[in-house]
């Protein structure tokens, strides 16, 4: 790659512009409910959600925030009124979930729920202890029809985690009412802040309506009552800082051990500068780029042993290590997947499962090849073979959407529906059933055929307007911020951070065992 070329400079400029847009949207999540509600929260002597997380984490350790743009493009606040991510506490990687009480009192809306459930899924798959930093008014009642029934899974996940001997810890800083009371109720360890935590199934107004009983917050669900009388609180904290100290103490005494193999203690940084990744992806995704340029800036020592380099060249496969962890990599080269690429991928995935090696999928694909020649050559069964291998592979998968990720190629490269442990996107990524022009063109062809069958003249002006509208819609719905708002990825990342993000993800994955599949489904030959 020529980093001094005009093409590189143009790609870099386009990527930096996308990153600036991304930073603006991230700022909305970080701002919480805005100055008014942040000031009110501070006036009450309380820490913000991200400040609580920062105090909880080991000093100078990283925090891999997940789904920061949840709810983007909806009527709800960007971020979904909750912060989730993976951080190290007393040397233990934990899933951390913190309500943001400056956004509608931390009340849970449909986006909050999806974000919380995704965090629980990641914690379960990767055997991560969970720490909930609780201050929430419960469900956002106007949206109860969307969150009440599926929201029960939140508490089911806590009990399942405990049964799987994966600890759950609740630090309660404020309200945890109604259904939210079951969050500490179903956690293994509970810390409550004196005179601040309020945990009850029904607050004083509801109790009055239901039973006629007069009561106050403290006697009904205060921290001291739960520590001395009900026994729900295991620890009574004097203030927020003390609650965080107690939470760190609990983690310190968990006797926690990773079950996966440890990384090699000595490894080299890439020989090529990761900053160059800003200029890899062309502004026009129809222009191909060499994924080896990405791999050389992500893996240890830029050392990559390519597998079957002369066969199925539109898909690059091979072995490397990343932050000391062995990995297999599948990366799209020219965009289209042919039969040869599908068969090559299938064999490579089987080999990775034989050697218990995690897989990284780097997406830039327009999908599987279509056309008479390719249909007759068996592209359906060969594509199905690759998807079968991805579906039944048991080693951990990591996916990064660098460019296009269209059609069934998104499935074959382990898209969201195929259960990658983590899936991240670059700001340049796009994902849809097909490209906007192709989709609009297909609709146009179908409409023309229908008009001809009816013996009617085709409305060319209407066709032009329809195509423009469809292209605009698909373009908007395939953009990374839209997809991230829907929680179809775990976050949009700066390409320069790819190595770090994948390294943190691999480290989290190795809290659990890493084992390959013992068998696959029937491969159509």
Automatic annotation (TrEMBL):
This is Acetyl-CoA carboxylase carboxyltransferase subunit. GO terms for molecular function: ligase activity; transferase activity. Residues 21-273, 270-508 form the CoA carboxyltransferase C-terminal domain. Residues 15-266 form the CoA carboxyltransferase N-terminal domain. Pfam families: Carboxyl_trans. It comes from the Bacteria. InterPro entries: AcCoA_carboxyl_beta, ClpP/crotonase-like_dom_sf, COA_CT_C, COA_CT_N, MCCB/AccD1-like.
């Amino acid at each position: 790659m020529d980093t001094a070329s005009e093409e590189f400079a143009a790609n870099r400029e386009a990527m930096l512009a996308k990153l600036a847009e991304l930073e603006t949207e991230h700022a909305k999540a970080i701002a919480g409910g805005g100055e008014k509600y942040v000031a009110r929260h501070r006036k009450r002597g309380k820490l913000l959600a991200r400040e609580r997380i920062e105090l909880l984490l080991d000093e100078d350790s990283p925090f891999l925030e997940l789904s920061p743009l949840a709810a983007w493009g909806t009527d709800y606040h960007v971020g979904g009124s909750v912060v989730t991510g993976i951080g190290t506490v007393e040397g233990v990687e934990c899933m951390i979930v913190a309500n943001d009480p400056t956004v509608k009192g931390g009340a849970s809306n449909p986006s909050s729920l999806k974000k919380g459930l995704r965090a629980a899924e990641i914690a379960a798959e990767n055997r991560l202890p969970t720490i909930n930093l609780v201050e929430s008014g419960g469900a956002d009642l106007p949206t109860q029809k969307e969150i009440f029934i599926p929201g029960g899974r939140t508490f089911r996940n806590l009990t399942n985690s405990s049964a799987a001997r994966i600890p759950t810890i609740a630090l309660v800083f404020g309200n945890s009412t109604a259904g939210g009371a079951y969050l500490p109720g179903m956690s293994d360890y509970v810390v409550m802040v004196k005179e601040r935590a309020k945990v009850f199934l029904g607050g004083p107004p509801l109790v009055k309506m239901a039973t006629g009983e007069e009561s106050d917050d403290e006697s009904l669900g205060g921290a001291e009552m739960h520590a001395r009388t009900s026994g729900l609180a295991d620890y009574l904290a004097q203030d927020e800082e003390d609650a965080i100290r107690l939470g760190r103490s609990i983690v310190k005494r968990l006797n926690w051990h990773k079950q996966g193999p440890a990384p090699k203690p000595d490894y080299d940084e890439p020989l090529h500068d990761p900053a160059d990744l800003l200029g890899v992806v062309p502004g026009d995704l129809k222009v191909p780029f060499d994924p080896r340029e990405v791999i050389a800036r992500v893996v240890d020592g830029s050392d990559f042993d390519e597998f079957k380099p002369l066969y199925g060249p539109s898909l690059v496969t091979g072995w490397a290590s990343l932050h000391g962890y062995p990995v297999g990599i599948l990366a799209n080269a020219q965009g289209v997947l042919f039969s040869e690429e599908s068969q090559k991928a299938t064999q490579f995935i089987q080999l990775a499962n034989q050697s218990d090696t995690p897989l990284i999928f780097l997406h830039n694909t327009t999908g599987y090849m279509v056309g008479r020649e390719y249909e007759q050559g068996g592209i359906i069964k060969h594509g199905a073979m690759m998807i079968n291998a991805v579906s039944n592979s048991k080693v951990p998968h990591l996916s990064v959407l660098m460019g296009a990720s269209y059609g069934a190629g998104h499935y074959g490269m382990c898209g969201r529906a195929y259960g990658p442990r983590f899936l991240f996107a670059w700001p340049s990524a796009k994902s849809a059933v097909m490209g906007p022009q192709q989709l609009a063109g297909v609709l146009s062809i179908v409409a023309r055929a229908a008009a001809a069958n009816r013996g009617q003249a085709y409305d060319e002006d209407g066709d032009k307007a329809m195509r423009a509208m469809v292209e605009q819609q698909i373009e908007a719905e395939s953009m990374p911020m839209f997809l991230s708002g829907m929680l179809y990825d775990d976050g949009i990342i700066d390409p320069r951070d790819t190595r770090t993000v994948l390294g943190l993800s691999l480290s989290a994955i190795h809290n659990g065992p890493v084992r390959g599949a013992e068998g696959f489904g029937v491969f159509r030959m």
